[in-house]
């Protein structure tokens, strides 16, 4: 998506405003978005409380609203984390989980939520240099392991062995960079 303001760079920032009861979204690049920062003179809007901000992000999700023509289904039973008793509704209200087990319990809802909040389930944007190197190496290892699994499934064991060795080399490099091999 291209920036609505300069029409040159990729849009990485989405600004959502409610004007006269209507939700309006604008997509800007980093440079143009910095011009519309809340403390910039041209940006005139009342301050938003953190609770309102989280409510806007995690409030009634649009993906749960039924589309026209879909079959009527019984409303789903509220999911509850077996470890801490936290419900998905509580998560939407508070904007955080109760325990690490909540991630597994509510995992089916997270991709849709991430797509709504940001451009997708993966971070796309700038990272500090050292962290970026670690991330790139981890991503390469992950891709190699996927290719290695496919090679084993297709009984291409020589190719799988080459990929295994390649992954081990990257793991050594990752340890050198200070990343966690997992």
Automatic annotation (TrEMBL):
<dbReference type="GO" id="GO:1990170">
    <property type="term" value="P:stress response to cadmium ion"/>
</dbReference>
<dbReference type="GO" id="GO:0046870">
    <property type="term" value="F:cadmium ion binding"/>
</dbReference>
<dbReference type="InterPro" id="IPR001943">
    <property type="entry name" value="UVR_dom"/>
</dbReference>
<keyword id="KW-0175">Coiled coil</keyword>
<dbReference type="GO" id="GO:0008270">
    <property type="term" value="F:zinc ion binding"/>
</dbReference>
<dbReference type="GO" id="GO:0005507">
    <property type="term" value="F:copper ion binding"/>
</dbReference>
<feature type="coiled-coil region">
    <location>
        <begin position="153"/>
        <end position="180"/>
    </location>
</feature>
<dbReference type="InterPro" id="IPR036876">
    <property type="entry name" value="UVR_dom_sf"/>
</dbReference>
<protein>
    <submittedName>
        <fullName>Nucleotide excision repair protein</fullName>
    </submittedName>
</protein>
<dbReference type="GO" id="GO:1990169">
    <property type="term" value="P:stress response to copper ion"/>
</dbReference>
<feature type="domain" description="UVR">
    <location>
        <begin position="138"/>
        <end position="173"/>
    </location>
</feature>
<dbReference type="InterPro" id="IPR025542">
    <property type="entry name" value="YacH"/>
</dbReference>
<dbReference type="Pfam" id="PF02151">
    <property type="entry name" value="UVR"/>
</dbReference>
<dbReference type="GO" id="GO:0050897">
    <property type="term" value="F:cobalt ion binding"/>
</dbReference>
